[in-house]
Amino acid sequence: MRPTSLVSRERAVTLVVCGHAQVIAEDESVVYRSQHLRLALPVILQVPAYVELRPIVKHTVVRRVLFCRDNWRCAYCGRDGGPRDLTVDHVKPLSRGGEHAWDNVVAACRRCNHRKGSRLPYEAGMYPRNVPKRPDMVQVAWAGRLTHPLQRQYVAQWHKVPEAAL
Ligand SMILES: [Zn+2]
After folding, report:
1. What is the CA(60)–ligand 1 centre distance, in A?
2. Pick the CATH number of 63-124 from 2.120.10.30, 2.30.42.10, 1.10.30.50, 1.10.1040.10
3. Span 148-164, pLDDT tens digits
4. What is the tens place of the pLDDT at every residue in 79-97?
5. Ligand 1 (single-atom ion) residues, CB below 5 Å
6. Ligand 1 mean position to 64 CA, how many Å?
7. Nearby residues of 62 by Cβ (< 8 Å), 6 or more positions away
8. Which of 85, 102, 132, 145 fits 81 for a cystine, CB–CB 3.0-4.6 Å?
């Protein structure tokens, strides 16, 4: 099954306890206990399509994940940048009604961000090289958000990339 989302531990436990998810892999070294329940930490779940997951990366824009999504390059000039040179640019500026959301943010070097200012792409004549969208699981993994070794293994196998690359 294709890995699609990363949810919080709490959400994962709730999904299992409520019977909305089937456990594919669990971590026996972390056990949740209550009077009537003993549950090893679920790390990979199979969830039917109708269940709402509320994935961690759905709404929150995380700088590091964003830069990974954009391959640590400026979306306008294509120059390689590090965390010191890259900034978060809103394609449609916040001051013009743009949202702080995955489909409106790109990595931009300081120079391009400054040059574009609060103008729209067509006003500035500056268009991002790729249409911004929500990052996929490999990009999230690259950003170090997949903390559990079983999750890294699963994602690496699915995408046929070496685990060391995640
Ligand atoms: Zn640039």
Report:
1. 24
2. 1.10.30.50
3. 888 888 888 877 777 76
4. 988 778 899 999 999 999 9
5. 74, 76-77, 109, 112
6. 17
7. 143, 145
8. 85
